[in-house]
Amino acid sequence: MARPTIARSASAEIEVSRSRFVATAHRIDSLDELPVLVRAARRAHPDARHVCSAGVAGPNGEASRSNDDGEPAGTAGAPILSAIAGRDLTDVAVLVVRWFGGVKLGTGGLVRAYGGIAAEALDAAGRLARVPASELIGTVPIADAPRIEHALRSAGHEPHLDYGADAAAALRLTVADAALPEAQALLAQLGVVTSAHGGLLLELPPR
């Protein structure tokens, strides 16, 4: 099973010794999006002293990156990254914007502030489980499409039908690999011939 990701974008804010920290959690598809998010945060908050960041990407969190943005080495990017890794998340970036309040927090204080506020933003974002999945592709006569769609939806599936100009509709159905044999059997009973294309991830709603 692939690592989960966050369910939505979220933010959190804290003030420590007059320094203000604002964290935002974002869904990403690759680490290439991280500098884009950082630039946007700098434009939105030109008066901030630091925009520190970290991100993890890949089905199993294979790629990661962090940046202290001028804070002492290891006091900002690393604790943000640890907050992501500690929740076993991937395809997520967290930015923490800091407005310096005039009081130095020390190494320990910075680590606690950056890691803590990143964790709050991630917890507010929720999580989505993701499982290996396949897409079933086939065609159905337009006359039979409503019946077949109803049967699939009654079984808990979410089929997508594309009605073209001819007499057939294209059917696409994404199914968790664990439920693939059952879905294929149902489609066979309905008279639908499909081909399976694997290597996908299906996101499951939070419980």
UniProtKB/TrEMBL annotation:
Gene3D superfamilies: Impact, N-terminal domain
Family the UniProt entry places it in: Belongs to the IMPACT family.
PROSITE patterns given in the database record: UPF0029
Protein name: Uncharacterized protein, YigZ family
InterPro entries, sorted: Impact, Impact_N, Impact_N_sf, Ribosomal_Su5_D2-typ_SF, UPF0029_Impact_CS
Domain Impact N-terminal: 18-122
GO biological process, one term: regulation of translational initiation
Origin: domain of life: Bacteria
Positions of the UniProt region annotated as Disordered: 51-74
GO CC annotations, alphabetized: cytoplasm
PANTHER family xrefs: IMPACT FAMILY MEMBER YIGZ (PTHR16301:SF20), IMPACT-RELATED (PTHR16301)
